[in-house]
Amino acid sequence: MDAFFVSVEELFDPSLKGKAVVVGGQRDERGVVAAASYEARKYGVHSAMPLRTAAKLCPHAIFVDGHRHRYLEYSEKVHGVLTTFSPLVEMASIDEAYLDMTGTERLHGPALSAAHRLHHKIKSETQLNCSIGMGSSRLVAKVASAKAKPHGILWVIPGQEARFLAPLDVRDIPGVGKVTEQSLLKLGIQRVGDLSRFDDEFLEEHFGKWGLALAGKSRGEDAGGWFVNEVGADIGAKSISHEHTYNQDTADVDQLESTLMRLSEMVGRRLREQGLHARTIQLKLRYKDFTTITRAHCLPAPTQLDTEIFEQIRSLFHKNWRKGAQVRLLGVHAASFENPNSQGNLLEDGRRKRWQQALSAADHLRDKFGESSVSLATGLGGTFRERTHENPVGLPGKKKPA
DNA sequence: TCTGGGGTCCTAGGACCC
DNA sequence: TCTGGGGTCCTAGGACCC
Questions:
Q1: Which of A203, A227, A251 is the last residue of a domain?
Q2: Which of A106, A264, A303, A366 could form a disulfide with A308 if both were Cys (CB 3.0 to 4.6 A apart)?
Q3: Closest Cα partner for A387 from A379, A199, A116, A376?
Q4: Rounded to two decimals, what is the model's pTM?
Q5: Which of residues 241-270 of A touch strand B (CB under 7 A)?
Q6: Cα–Cα distance between A359 and A173 in angstroms, integer?
Q7: Residues near chain C (nucleic strand), Cβ < 7 A?
């Protein structure tokens, strides 16, 4: 999708159309640009740039908060259209998908004309622009769609893959970021064509497994461990996490613990929604100076309970936090999903079951009355922080009896 | 310029086991 | 008396993507 978040926001507020728009937060907030309109990009604004930098580069830009649920809703609409073109659809992200069009000629005609009809249908059904890349591998299709933007279609004819890629910057290869680009530059490799002239063994020596993948990519192949699945073989999530960056760094234990409780609840809730049980619980801690640590603990049995997650997180936090140090960010991460093997002792099982019931009741209440309607007390001196719509992470406020 | 949030994959070392 | 080789699991960190 082209400038997806911006385009969706324009549907909700048509006055944004044609203007410099930055999605991701307000101009004076801590945060980065999630998406910028083409108008804003003219001023050098791009995604991942700090909001404050964007405000300096483009002072007249309109800053809009992100609305994830809106994007998910439109992503689902797009997905609906895609499935009418091929049964093999793989959503690669919220605004990106691969379609395997092999064998659809009888139904949709030649792939290029199918692409044109898809282009039209996406626009008429969602009012959004997209770009389409066509190729014999995912890599080629993805790079082609990037080159087709905005609102274009680009077909790389089979056999022409290497020729299409050769003049492009290595940075255009998905997976090559700043670091890899610099390492390649030191070897005199700037374009994909330069890369393809080195043999596989040389690249493997320098970059290990990744070097071998790079060699394949320079020829337009997916091989190398990144894109080996069949299109449409969508795999479930491997981890679930939530994190929060404070607008002001803090060293207030109550506030920090309150945030960890909240994040644990959010992770627990999503585990239950997806019927998952996690064995590894990880804390993320970023200090004022941006140094970041992660500390994980592996549970004897997988869990989806807020209380068990928070218990681990709380202990990891107190074992690792430099007392009094200003904290910028906290995160809670759950991974190593396993089936719960209920062979613990019966007493524990009964206790867990009751928690399970209490939590799904709480989940229901949150569905009905909003996120802030239910919370577990953190048990800090018999009080908890009130959370309101304006104060979603439980910043210090008036205290209520637990 | 002062750096979000939610993910995936890879590397590497240590513990532990046979 | 000073040591192998293969495997798995756990933990920490980092590159990268949208």
A1: A227
A2: A303
A3: A376
A4: 0.85
A5: 241-245, 266, 270
A6: 45
A7: A 47-48, 92-96, 142, 173-181, 279-280, 282, 292-298, 336
Q: Shortest CA distance to A99 belongs to which of A112, A111, A90, A108?
A: A90
DSSP state of A372: G
Residue A230 is predicted with a pLDDT of: 72
- Cα-trace Rg, chain A: 24
Q: How many residues does chain A have?
A: 402
Distances, alpha carbon A295 to alpha carbons A242, A311, A328, in Å: 15, 14, 16
Contact indicator for A92, A98 with CB cutoff of 8 Å: yes
d(CA A105, CA A108): 5
Distance CA(A338)–CA(A311), nearest Å, equals: 20
Which residue, A66, A92, A120, sits at the end of a domain?
A66
A254: closest CA among A382, A401, A366, A359?
Answer: A382
Q: How far is CA A194 from the centre of its chain?
A: 32
List the one residue out of A113, A78, A111, A110 whose CA is nearest residue A95.
A78
Total number of domains constituting chain A: 4
Structure tokens at A388: 């309101």
C-alpha closest to that of A136 among A155, A164, A158, A116: A158
Residue-wise pLDDT tens digits, A228-279: 457 766 568 999 999 999 999 999 999 999 999 999 999 999 999 999 999 9
Active site residue A29: no
Q: Nearest nucleotide to A270 by CA–C1' distance? A: B6
Map tokens 């068990």 to a residue. Answer: A308
A327-337 sheet: strands from edge to edge: A239-250, A327-337, A278-287, A292-303
Q: Which domain holds residue A13?
A: 4-66
